[in-house]
Amino acid sequence: QQPAAPDMIIHPLRDTPRLDEFSFMVVDDSIVVRNMIKWLLKSCHAREIREAADGAHAREVFRSFCPDIVLVDWEMQPVDGLTFVKHARDLEDSPDPYVSLILMSSHKQCRRALAARDAGVDAFVTKPISRSGLLGAIQSVMENPRPYTLCDTYFGPDRRRGQLDHDG
Q: Which residue, 82, 146, 90, 152, is CA-closest to 119?
């Protein structure tokens, strides 16, 4: 007969950030991915977490709950994550066009990252999601928020990552 396994105690890692001042919305069509991200956020003491299974449901949740950070998957039906991002940045229709948006995608092509940037995301994370990659994106958004810019065709975080000094 096998001895009973001791209860597992999960201790936070030393570099685990404290997220108790932040609320999150997790948008992904995979319940497994949503649960994994929620577990990670809870282990960092996130203040509040809501979830949605696609961009259409996320729009409904976003109307009644304005999170600090939205983690949204790109590939979903019937409304994908990029469409949700564009809705969230709509100055006339969005409940909070300044919400921080982190887009997640299994596609790693540069053109995808550029399309996400041009839609107004604050950060882009590739799947499979790693703890360090996701927490790094969250910390970047929290600690280094970019100023917002408005022009005829764009509203969102300034797309320039840094200023280059040059003569001329």
A: 82
Alpha-carbon distance 46 to 61, whole Å?
A: 18
145 cis-preceded (ω within 30 degrees of 0) = no
CA angle 96, 102, 108 (to 5 degrees): 145
Whether 116 contacts 72, CB under 8 Å: no
The radius of gyration computed from the CA coordinates of the chain, to the nearest angstrom, equals 18
pLDDT digits (tens, 9 = 90+) for 53-83: 999 999 999 999 999 999 999 999 999 999 9
Q: 163 falls in which pLDDT band (50, 70, 90)?
A: low
How far is CA 23 from each of CA 7, 42, 44, 101, 129, rounded to the nearest angstrom?
Answer: 30, 11, 12, 12, 20
At residue 57, the 3 state secondary structure works out as helix
Residues 104-117 have pLDDT tens digits of 999 888 888 889 99
- Using CA atoms, how far apart are residues 43 and 64, in angstroms rounded to an integer? 25
**Distance of alpha carbon 123 from alpha carbon 136, whole angstroms:** 10
Which pTM value belongs to this model?
0.84
Which residues contact residue 84 at a Cβ distance below 8 angstroms, ignoring those fewer than 6 apart?
A: 27, 55, 58, 59, 72
Residue reference for tokens 């030393």: 14
**What's the token pair of residue 9?**
């105690």
Q: Is the pLDDT reported for residue 13 higher than 80?
A: no
